[in-house]
């Protein structure tokens, strides 16, 4: 059964349209279970009903005509209860609803299971049989497993089906993801794809068909040459049987095999990379389903050859300078900091990514650059999006493809209103950030990108609460030298002097990687990251510490922050390395003073080591993004569980309050530099807990300052007292929203539907 299930999922995955996917589902499942009927009903959210979308066994004329509300009929009952229904005599069940057009009165046995994706019922899968019997446990388990496996694939097929119907310019599609960076943007999709990924090649119409054919032939010739050279190099070290495999590769690349088929698709109007990907995947899908072991193994060979040819085609494409639309919305599987940097800032208006979340590194950068972003769109078929007009709604986590005129006008008005609010709030940026009853809150900014430097000191700020040193490392093709780092850090320290600048030591791992220092792990957020990496590579850390200290000579505004600290031993080791770096520079005649040293409170374990840490460091900095992730055991880059990631969870608020209380008791300064500090609600809660230093991305300054200036310290302290007495996230969210309404601060929050 496992093999059957795998093959059905593969076939559905390869379907070109929703209709094709549904057809495969009903036919393959009926055959596998040897039933008389298999049908699939999909939920229509707008009409709030389940629609018969495909069947084999019932009358075909009923497709698209039969609809049932949740709770109506046996199908509606399955959808409403979100659990299987297995009965031997369907007609006698109290919920049975008769539809003459289906002809289902002939069938007694009924087994229906819900198709659920991320807690959302997509539809109902049904099998029926003439004979009066209850389906066995094994049959029920198979259909449940089938529905669970098909759920994710079906979401993709639904999206693909919606996109396939977009050939009519009047048709629009609304897709939901994760709100990763606030704001709204209207623009045109520019798709970026990872190198040699056959499954992520965008679909385009070639400008010159003959040129595309020539590109394909040249790429195949290059791969043939590579294989020939590899065979010659290995000739003396492998057997004749193994050498024959290289001949098989050459035959696969021959005109009669892949070459001709790809060329045919190009002449039908597809550009070479997409034509290649379609042909290769078709062959691979076929070979993986056959019973012959030898042929199944050849599927891997064809996939490998396809990637090799695609890599050459992409090299040719990359050699041509890309043309970005005036209002570019960057769309990709994963978007890196380097890809952000390649697009002229005046053209980039939005981001859409299949992976990532509101606290992934690229989302943090998007917020720093004030670019709306929607992420976690795992089921979006990006290969069909190139050049598509779209709206990115970073407040609600929505992507609207080919918006109709009325929706376009509505969003244009909302964008204008948002810009007017921003202008109004910016007029307050020279005013002090203090509560209405005169308590001062120090507002600092997070930096790391050059774009964050421009204009930042113009606002009234108290320094840099977090300088992300990993960003310059990401922009290089190797570890930057001490001299290069010194220059970069000096610019940062001088640019904000005499205000303090908190520089975090290299923080890679998790969702932040260096192209020249890859870290491959099954669970990267619980793996080798932050200080764990730099203590294992003291040569890297020592260069960075010396560069920071050199850059601070004569300025005295450097603060050093250690990320991902878990134990006292890590702090002691890093402190000794800092002392050694100071000694080495003094020996070289550099005037160096020991800067203040702090630790990031991100790992829950350090919450219970604050007293010991207070004797070793000068300040604490709460990294709320990771602290929330680890407290709630939620991978912040996993779209399936992102809804569980919420700073207003009672456990998170109590942990933050505990840190604030302990820091005051120990007389150690504590700040917050995570995304929570840049959210008006988060900033008010933190202020009420007793935090007096908040660091955020520069675009968040105006809203946070406005919120702080319009409340009293007593008011936010009362709010914190009230929310800490609650035990429900829903209650907490509602109380906070009501209090924001009372304070007339709702306009500072993301718009609600």
From TrEMBL:
<comment type="similarity">
    <text>Belongs to the PEP-utilizing enzyme family.</text>
</comment>
<keyword id="KW-0813">Transport</keyword>
<dbReference type="InterPro" id="IPR003018">
    <property type="entry name" value="GAF"/>
</dbReference>
<dbReference type="InterPro" id="IPR029016">
    <property type="entry name" value="GAF-like_dom_sf"/>
</dbReference>
<dbReference type="InterPro" id="IPR036618">
    <property type="entry name" value="PtsI_HPr-bd_sf"/>
</dbReference>
<dbReference type="InterPro" id="IPR023151">
    <property type="entry name" value="PEP_util_CS"/>
</dbReference>
<feature type="domain" description="GAF">
    <location>
        <begin position="17"/>
        <end position="164"/>
    </location>
</feature>
<keyword id="KW-0963">Cytoplasm</keyword>
<keyword id="KW-0808">Transferase</keyword>
<dbReference type="InterPro" id="IPR040442">
    <property type="entry name" value="Pyrv_kinase-like_dom_sf"/>
</dbReference>
<dbReference type="Pfam" id="PF00391">
    <property type="entry name" value="PEP-utilizers"/>
</dbReference>
<keyword id="KW-0762">Sugar transport</keyword>
<dbReference type="GO" id="GO:0005737">
    <property type="term" value="C:cytoplasm"/>
</dbReference>
<dbReference type="InterPro" id="IPR015813">
    <property type="entry name" value="Pyrv/PenolPyrv_kinase-like_dom"/>
</dbReference>
<keyword id="KW-0479">Metal-binding</keyword>
<dbReference type="InterPro" id="IPR006318">
    <property type="entry name" value="PTS_EI-like"/>
</dbReference>
<dbReference type="GO" id="GO:0046872">
    <property type="term" value="F:metal ion binding"/>
</dbReference>
<keyword id="KW-0460">Magnesium</keyword>
<dbReference type="Pfam" id="PF05524">
    <property type="entry name" value="PEP-utilisers_N"/>
</dbReference>
<dbReference type="GO" id="GO:0016301">
    <property type="term" value="F:kinase activity"/>
</dbReference>
<dbReference type="InterPro" id="IPR000121">
    <property type="entry name" value="PEP_util_C"/>
</dbReference>
<dbReference type="GO" id="GO:0009401">
    <property type="term" value="P:phosphoenolpyruvate-dependent sugar phosphotransferase system"/>
</dbReference>
<keyword id="KW-0418">Kinase</keyword>
<protein>
    <recommendedName>
        <fullName>phosphoenolpyruvate--protein phosphotransferase</fullName>
        <ecNumber>2.7.3.9</ecNumber>
    </recommendedName>
</protein>
<dbReference type="InterPro" id="IPR008731">
    <property type="entry name" value="PTS_EIN"/>
</dbReference>
<dbReference type="InterPro" id="IPR036637">
    <property type="entry name" value="Phosphohistidine_dom_sf"/>
</dbReference>
<dbReference type="Pfam" id="PF02896">
    <property type="entry name" value="PEP-utilizers_C"/>
</dbReference>
<dbReference type="GO" id="GO:0008965">
    <property type="term" value="F:phosphoenolpyruvate-protein phosphotransferase activity"/>
</dbReference>
<dbReference type="InterPro" id="IPR050499">
    <property type="entry name" value="PEP-utilizing_PTS_enzyme"/>
</dbReference>
<dbReference type="InterPro" id="IPR008279">
    <property type="entry name" value="PEP-util_enz_mobile_dom"/>
</dbReference>
<keyword id="KW-0598">Phosphotransferase system</keyword>
<dbReference type="Pfam" id="PF01590">
    <property type="entry name" value="GAF"/>
</dbReference>
